[in-house]
User: Fold this.
Amino acid sequence: MVLWLLWSGSEPSAFEAEPPKESFRTGTLLVGEDIVPGRYFTNPKEGCYFARLSGLGGELSDILANEFIDFDAVQWIVEIDQTDLAFSTDTECGEWSKTPTEGMQVGIRPGVWLVNQQIQPGRYRATNSEGCYWARLRNFGGSILSGVFCKRLCRLGWAGSC
Assistant:
């Protein structure tokens, strides 16, 4: 069998892939190819869903960690590991970037914050309605193992420390 290739026009050039991005929006993105691993920040809308993935088969076991944000958070943080295969995020999550969305805070607003960089370490008190929640985190991986200590806030108020 003889195979002939007929080419007309300019000489073909090598395909050059774009370098991985440090900010992104919606989609399922491959770590190391589409995005670089690391810490990312966003200002999500209510209904934001994202997941760190070890596989792309659509199986529950492919999810390393995930989050559904059911309130309007001021900022959210996730740590995408270099061993993650992919990261999936929806439109409500907005743009993820390596730069925090907020600077140093006077108080603690809804969301996830960096102690010493965005909130001062110390003791905080708040009066909240039923269903409020707080957690001290070891990291921003999003798994149940990320938490150091978590507690549901009571109706009368809360005192906790960072």
